[in-house]
Design goal:
With 288 residues, this protein is mainly α. Helices cover 63% and strands 0% of the residues.
Length: 288
């Protein structure tokens, strides 16, 4: 027989439910970081302003994080806590906060921050930071955080979909182009062009990859495109995408075109510049 006496008297009002400690702890730690970010912003260092704004805006939404995402959120807070006093890691913290914001919230502010970071850092550097630091925040080998963020980067006309103020077609196009290039740069991180997977042969296979494929699966198929961007396979994928839908076809065609641009740029970098080439006489002796 238990000797523990109930602390609630008979007929008394029930005690309020206990609030889980994890959300309260995360909210408290995020608030401390926000206060430090805002103090740092008062120093007025121009090149830090964007990065501090992205971190602050992301941490401000702690109370909107769902319980299943608390582990990821805790890792983001730990990352910012670890690097809060080091100026050279601010871009990495901002890039990672943006990746988390895109995956967990996907609001217009997250897409706007993505384009601002891409303009400031360049698509490739931004993608490298998101890949390097974002991978450490993942809770699953299938990289659900990066996969969700990447999918949201590829959604066209996001401003209109999220009810933003009216935008001109030119602004919408530029906004989408920046997001698309950021997604492509993230997709090609860690790719090995020797990767091979069974080729996509049907509309159903492509539709399944588009709807349910992880970023790892996307990267394997993109590796085959990068290995030979002008082979019949990329054109085959684009043709299958057209049968899935207009939006899917536009995204797949744009990714293939960016892979081709990347291949051309890589070839140009390895080709010696005419000014550096030395003329040789018929006998083989190099001219001075």
């Amino acid at each position: 027989m238990s000797t523990t006496r109930s602390t609630a008297a008979r007929g008394a009002r029930p005690l309020p439910p206990v609030v889980p400690l994890a959300p309260r702890s995360l909210a408290r730690r995020a608030a401390v970081l926000q206060a430090r970010v805002r103090v740092r912003r008062t120093f007025g260092v121009a090149h830090e302003e964007l990065f501090l704004d992205v971190i602050d805006d992301t941490l401000a939404r702690t109370h909107g994080v769902h319980s299943e995402d608390h582990a990821t959120w805790a890792r983001l807070i730990a990352l910012v806590e670890e690097h809060r006093d080091l100026s050279h890691t601010l871009p990495a913290c901002a890039a990672t906060a943006n990746l988390v914001g895109l995956a967990l919230f996907g609001g217009l502010e997250d897409h706007t921050a993505l384009t601002a970071l891409a303009d400031e850092l360049g698509h490739v550097r931004l993608a490298r930071l998101q890949h390097r630091y974002g991978t450490a925040l993942e809770t699953d080998s299938r990289l659900p955080l990066t996969t969700t963020a990447m999918r949201r980067m590829l959604v066209p006309r996001i401003g209109r979909r999220l009810g933003a103020r009216p935008r001109t077609p030119a602004l919408d196009e530029a906004f989408d182009d920046t997001r698309l290039r950021a997604a492509h740069a993230l997709l090609v991180q860690g790719i090995d062009r020797d990767w091979t997977v069974p080729t996509l042969e049907s509309v159903d296979e492509l539709a399944d990859i588009v709807a349910n494929g992880t970023i790892a699966e996307w990267r394997h198929h993109l590796a085959m495109v990068l290995a030979d961007p002008w082979s019949p396979y990329p054109d085959r994928i684009v043709d299958l995408a057209r049968q899935v839908g207009r939006a899917q076809a536009a995204v797949v065609a744009a990714l293939v075109e960016l892979c081709r641009d990347q291949q051309v740029a890589a070839a140009d970098r390895t080709r010696p510049h005419p000014a550096t080439q030395r003329y040789r006489y018929p006998g083989g002796r190099v001219a001075p």
